[in-house]
Amino acid sequence: xxISLCPKYNFSFKSNDRVVYRDFNNQICxxxxxxxxxxxxxxxxxxxxxxxxxxxxxxxxxxxxxxxxNWVGFRKTIADEFQNAPKVNVYDFACSDGxxxxxxxxxxxxxxxxxxxxxxxxxxxYDVDETMVESAKNGSISCYEDDIDRLAQNIHxxxxxxxxxxxxxxxxxxxYTFLASDKLKKNVxxxxxxxxxxxxxxxxxxxxxxxxxxxxxxxxxxxxxxxWQLGKKLDDTSLLVIGHFDKFKVYNALKxxxxxxxxxxxxxxxxxx
Length: 273
Hints:
- The chain starts with 18 loop residues before the first strand and ends with a strand.
- The protein contains 10 helices and 13 strands.
- The longest helix is centred in the middle third of the chain and has 14 residues, at 99-112.
- The strands form 3 sheets. It has a 7-stranded mixed β-sheet. A 3-stranded antiparallel β-sheet has the order 2-1-3. Strands 6-8-7 form a 3-stranded antiparallel β-sheet.
- Helices cover 32% and strands 21% of the residues.
- β7 (164-167) and β8 form a beta hairpin.
- The chain is of the alpha/beta class.
- The radius of gyration is 18 Å and the shape is globular.
């Protein structure tokens, strides 16, 4: 298969498009293909939608880094922000099938090299959906041409070929599979938990907290509580990263709790006076 290096954001296929909803008998159900009726969509609880190198972070970087269609600016910004930290605590909430955690690991190793990137690992990744957590631990993730294109756009170091492979067996569904090697999987610890259960365990300093593209599913009261707790917990050496799906729901709450947006989707607490 020919791999195009041109950005393609027609997400007709995703690494994961599973949704969870309540049926007419108030039972919790899931649909791996997101083929819900309009009535079922009205009872949506949450979506597991994710993909490798989700492009809302393509602009999440300092203006001194000009990048097009990839995370290079974002990963350089992260490296700059934590350059003096001996250890960085990385948390990935609502991690779904692990696509984002694996994307971040590959980005940091590609940017910093294996030795320097170690201070960011292991990433602590959580999701409330046990099915997704088991998929993430397994490291075998559905992927399509869009995902493969973004992998090519974001990974430039040949040494990362030992971190993953792609199974192009088209006799099965899905047509392609991302296969995380043990070398990649050892850098992340996946567990079943909600953000509310784990906020108390977040380290206040030198933490990178990913709360991306799930906050509106919590409901207004719970969102405000989570943002308030994060505002109390994190200090000005840590970063909070949200997603495009979250911003309009939480921007004012983040500002009210002392956060400022230092780059698109990247927030930091104001320094105490």
